[in-house]
């Protein structure tokens, strides 16, 4: 079904609740250890490093939860999906881990490293069309013809619940705001479900000209033609129907980032924080400079960037020099119980699971 047809028809995509996210956490904990946190001091933001996740992206969470939940329901059909790369790799890894047959449909022009990642885990790769929507239509057709289980990259209750486990892992650290990149909306929906009841503000991040979710939330559900962007993982013409409803009701804001800001942020991540992220992976951090918060967390959603693209960015982009830092007071990364101040001269006394002292919150007058 073309994108234009999908815009006018809302299928029954089910529903998802906080209980589904908690059930996903119970399923996934034996397969996927929590990803680490890193304090990007020059940005004043904590980073949730999903670029260090299995397959290099948070997408494996939703894919694995969907396969495990399907197995519990007795659905053992082969899995087929459409993806620009990260969802396909997550499905391929999950299928390999559980012994399920998987077929992935990827558009022509998908990054070569992501295609190689899918093939590495034994999934069948079919390339079709020039965009995600072309690949989506072909994958749906194959699913109907051969009775495969079609697994959406974002508009699926099991997938959303799996992505929400990112929020479950952030909850013990008492964030006041979490920033997440948005393509189809699966990650934003899941994280918002996990954290909203705790009073955490959830802010989405999109790129200028690739902002279908922001438009849909405001009532404009017409398909857009996403402009070329470094953030290829979030180039979606129409967000999900289920994710749109969840984002409209749960998100506090959506920040639109300029392409130049995204490019500079990705280079700064590499040069200042020694972290490799793909375009969509740097998107939440790029939006963070416009988001106020004493304990800001940004999700670095993936690290599968093509080597030639990264080399070009490092050659061409010259980040601005950071401002001189203000005087700061130390604070710790909070545990589920209570914040523990780490002695300034005894870093070894901190608990082993706290890998870094939170440097710093700017001092303000009451």
From TrEMBL:
SUPFAM superfamilies: Tryptophan synthase beta subunit-like PLP-dependent enzymes. Keywords: Lyase, Pyridoxal phosphate. InterPro entries: Ser/Thr_Dehydratase, TrpB-like_PALP, TrpB-like_PALP_sf. NCBIfam families: PRK08813.1 (NF006455). The lineage of its organism: Bacteria, Pseudomonadati, Pseudomonadota, Gammaproteobacteria, Lysobacterales. Its EC number is 4.3.1.19. Residues 33-293 form the Tryptophan synthase beta chain-like PALP domain. This is Threonine dehydratase. Pfam families: PALP (PF00291). Its cofactor is pyridoxal 5'-phosphate.
């Amino acid at each position: 079904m073309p994108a234009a047809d999908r815009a006018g028809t809302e299928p029954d995509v089910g529903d998802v609740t906080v209980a589904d996210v908690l059930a996903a956490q119970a399923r996934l904990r034996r397969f996927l250890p929590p990803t680490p946190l890193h304090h990007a001091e020059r940005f004043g933001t904590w980073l949730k490093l999903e670029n260090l996740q299995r397959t290099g992206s948070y997408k494996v969470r939703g894919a694995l939860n969907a396969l495990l939940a399907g197995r519990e329901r007795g659905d053992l059909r082969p899995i087929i999906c459409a993806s620009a790369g990260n969802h396909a790799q997550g499905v391929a890894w999950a299928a390999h881990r559980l012994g399920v047959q998987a077929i992935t449909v990827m558009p022509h022009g998908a990054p070569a490293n992501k295609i190689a990642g899918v093939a590495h885990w034994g999934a069948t790769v079919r390339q079709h069309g020039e965009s995600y929507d072309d690949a989506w239509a072909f994958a749906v057709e194959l699913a109907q013809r051969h009775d495969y289980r079609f697994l959406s990259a974002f508009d699926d209750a099991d997938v959303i619940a799996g992505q929400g486990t990112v929020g479950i892992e952030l909850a013990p650290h008492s964030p006041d705001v979490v920033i997440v990149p948005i393509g189809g909306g699966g990650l934003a929906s899941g994280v918002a479900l996990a954290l909203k009841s705790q009073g955490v503000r959830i802010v989405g991040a999109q790129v200028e000209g690739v902002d279908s979710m922001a438009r849909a939330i405001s009532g404009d559900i017409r398909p857009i033609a996403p402009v070329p962007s470094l953030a290829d993982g979030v180039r979606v013409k129409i967000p999900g129907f289920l994710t749109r409803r969840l984002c409209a009701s749960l998100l506090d804001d959506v920040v639109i980032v300029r392409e130049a800001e995204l490019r500079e942020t990705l280079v700064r991540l590499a040069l200042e924080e020694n972290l490799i992220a793909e375009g969509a992976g740097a998107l939440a951090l790029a939006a963070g400079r416009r988001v106020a918060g004493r304990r800001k967390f940004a999700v670095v959603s993936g690290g599968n960037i093509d080597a030639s693209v990264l080399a070009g960015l490092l050659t061409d982009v010259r980040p601005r020099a950071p401002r001189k830092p203000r005087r700061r007071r130390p604070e710790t990364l909070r545990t589920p119980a209570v914040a523990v101040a780490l002695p300034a001269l005894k870093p070894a006394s901190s608990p082993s699971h706290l890998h870094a002292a939170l440097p710093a919150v700017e001092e303000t007058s009451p």
